[in-house]
Amino acid sequence: MLAEKLKQNTLTNHQQLEKLLVGRMKAIRSKEDYINLLQLFYSYFGGLEQQIDQFMNADELPDYRQRRKSSALVNDITALGGVPAQKATGENLPAIQSIIQAYGAMYVIEGSTLGGKIISKMMAQQLGITDGKGLSFFSGYGADTETMWDTFKHMLNNQAYTPADETLLINTANQTFLKFKDWASR
Ligand code: HEM
Predict the structure, then answer these.
(1) Residue 102 CB less than 6 A away from ligand 1
(2) DSSP state of 70
(3) Does the beta carbon of 181 lie inside 6 Å of ligand 1?
(4) Whole-prediction pTM value?
(5) φ, ψ for residue 171 (rounded to 5)?
(6) What is the 8-class DSSP label of residue 132?
(7) Which end of the chain is more exposed for a tag (fewer CB within 10 A), N or C?
(8) Cβ of 141: how many Cβ atoms within 10 Å?
(9) For the segment 122-159, what is each residue's pLDDT rounded down to a tens digit?
């Protein structure tokens, strides 16, 4: 199944990104530090979303509109008194020129809801947030996170792919991880 291949073939890049981000998250001590983290996600995911939107729609993925949107990041940033940063463009993003590539990038965005649960717990603890304020993005789909992930994987696995499509999709997912790591390391 493609979802399983994606997991295996992007594992190294996921681990490297996770290491970089966990280090940064552990150092977060103030609301301002956390706003910076949210801005990092907003600028990259927001730019990506604009690219994905050109190819992905509700005909392709019926629950597309319900899926995570950078608007949750805008809400969190403004709730904490910050201003959203500029979105990433051009070479700072992976190339998305087809629905296959849109799926590759979406795999990364959707999968990040799984790690998001850990991140939101870490942030709530480190910043003493008890009312959930500013944590909506990292809370993903709340109690529905696993179901939403399973539905996404099901949709992903049920497309007709040529071997070339599979390679392109996996490469795009890897590029999405790598470019995020570059963006986070600027
Ligand atoms: C500090 C940060 C992160 C931690 C601690 C973390 C942790 C995790 C965990 C625990 C899983 C679930 C593994 C499983 O149930 O099999 C997961 C899956 C995943 N994460 Fe992360 N993650 C982090 C950041 C990210 C980010 C920033 C992205 C994307 C930009 C991402 C993309 C993914 C993807 C695509 C999967 C799905 C893997 C699969 O195919 O099952 N993660 N992550």
Answers:
(1) no
(2) H
(3) no
(4) 0.95
(5) -60, -40
(6) -
(7) C
(8) 16
(9) 999 999 999 999 999 999 999 999 999 999 999 999 98
